[in-house]
Amino acid sequence: MDSIRFWSYLLLIIPSIICSLFVLYNLLFIRTLRLALNNHIFIVLLFIGLLLEVTIYPWMLFYYHFNGIWQRSVIFCQIWGFLDWGVFVLYIILLAWATIERHILIFHDRWVSTKTKRMFLHYLPIVFLIPYSLIFYIIIYFFSPCETMVFESPMICFFPCLLSASFIIIWDGIIHQIVTVLIIIIFSIALLVRVVWQKYRIHRAVDWRKHRKMTIQLLSTSFLFLICYLPFTTVYVVNLCGISISNIQVLLNYSIFLTYLTVLLFPFVCALSLSELRTKLIKIFKFHRQINGVGRAPPVMRFTTNNRVGVQ
Question: What are the residue boundaries of the G-protein coupled receptors family 1 profile domain, all occurrences included (predicted)?
């Protein structure tokens, strides 16, 4: 299993970082994309994903390459655990908010028609969720009042004792895991149903050409997330119901493997879901093929006067 993880992450990490930088550059420096409200949450998600790609993924590759033989300090283990769990949960929470906000942007755009409305319904939730999540997990990982556990052999070598407290288990497990996943599922399905209903049944209200980009952008991201993260949530719920982890260890290992693919694949889904970036990628790919001589017309063969074959 470790070899599968190593090669999967290794083959994806560099293209994913390049794609993240490409998408971020375009979202930040193309004015129309930068000003589009629906892109703001994806800009934040790309920055978070890029942070994880240049930290925990290289560490994971190093760990797998040396078969877990790696002496690490306590502070390093704390930082790794915080990034691996705390920052990734922030990633999930923001995506859950994106599924709610997309309904506002498509079906209730008057709610964000002024600067004041945009401040309260668009910017303020993002500004609140980021420090809330970061402060919550900073306290758990760096300021635990109880004795923490440090391990040598597991990849995640630090387990904060606060995550064993009953209140924290309920809040982190139910609110941050189960509720956020349910929000993504329910609001994504609801978005698809509402768009299809208003387009084909009532023939009014929603301009499909205007809003299809926002719909496709969110649904493709949600679909990726559910494929990669829903198995882990299912295993988590099964464990909460009383089934021992030892009985579902194989399922747990594969579900954890899938969760790490979420961040690596997100930049590609984000790029392909935006028609402007998709067009640019096609042009870049065609130019690359021309540079490497792929797709050119074959050279014309002719016979020279000395009967040798020449190329024209």
Answer: 19-270
Say whether pTM exceeds 0.90.
no
Within 10 Å of residue 155's Cβ, how many Cβ atoms? Answer: 17
Q: Give the whole-angstrom CA distance, residue 193 versus residue 197.
A: 6
Q: Please name the residues in contact with 119: beta carbons below 8 A apart, sequence gap of 6 or more.
A: none
Tokens 């926002």 belong to residue: 214
Q: Which residues of the chain have pLDDT under 70?
A: 201-210, 285-312
pLDDT of residue 224: 94
Distance (Å, whole) CA 117 – CA 222? 26
Q: Which pLDDT score is estimated for 96? A: 96
The pLDDT of residue 297 is: 46
265: number of Cβ within 10 Å: 19
Q: Which domains does the chain have, with CATH numbers?
A: 2-277 (1.20.1070.10)
Q: What pLDDT does 308 receive?
A: 42
pLDDT at 208: 61
**CA distance linking residue 14 with residue 11, whole number of Å:** 7
Residue in this structure with the two tokens 């994913």, named with its chain if needed: 16
Q: Output the CA torsion sign for 36, 222, 182, 179.
A: negative
Q: Does an H or E element contain 201, and which?
A: none
The residues near 287 (Cβ < 8 Å, ≥ 6 apart) are none
Q: Which residues contact 28 (CB under 8 A, 6 or more apart)?
A: 34, 43
Q: 225 is written with which tokens?
A: 């997330």
CA distance 219 to 184: 10
Q: What are phi and psi of 301, to 5 degrees?
A: -95, 140
**Could you give the 3-state DSSP secondary structure of residue 242?**
coil
